[in-house]
Design brief:
Layout: E1 2-6, E2 9-11, E3 17-24, E4 32-38, E5 45-50, E6 57-59, E7 67-72, E8 77-82, E9 91-99, E10 102-105, E11 109-113
Parallel strand pairs: 2-11
Antiparallel strand pairs: 1-3, 3-8, 4-5, 4-9, 5-6, 7-8, 9-10, 9-11
């Protein structure tokens, strides 16, 4: 099982980034996919979730209206489009796959929002 995040980097406040997570080694279309983040000195927190079929999404209040989660089951990919980034969005962003009794995490990708 592998989840590999990419797309992180340094961006100015107000800018945009698109994170990607490539999945392999499990039945991707059966799993709900989520993004979490962890800022220095803070606990890991939920950012966004998408159902296995992509019809249902859910967001943390702090990112609602700015971030969009999506997935492509044919490519086994999940994405996080991040717009209007703020300095407080700075964190390591993790991809997570969940199914009944199963839970996988990626290694994370750093997002830094700074002028």
């Amino acid at each position: 099982v592998q989840l590999v995040e990419s797309g992180g980097g340094l961006v100015q406040p107000g800018g945009s980034l698109r994170l990607s997570c490539a999945a392999s080694g499990f039945t991707f279309s059966s799993y709900a996919m989520s993004w979490y983040r962890q800022a220095p000195g803070k606990e890991r927190e939920f950012v966004a979730r998408i159902s296995n079929g992509g019809a249902i999404t859910d967001y943390a209040d702090s990112v609602k209206g700015r971030f969009t989660i999506s997935r492509d089951n044919a490519k086994k990919m999940v994405y996080l489009q991040m717009n209007k980034l703020k300095t407080e969005d700075t964190a390591v962003y993790y991809c997570r796959a969940t199914f009944i009794g199963y839970n996988y995490w990626g290694q994370g990708t750093q997002v830094t929002v700074s002028s």
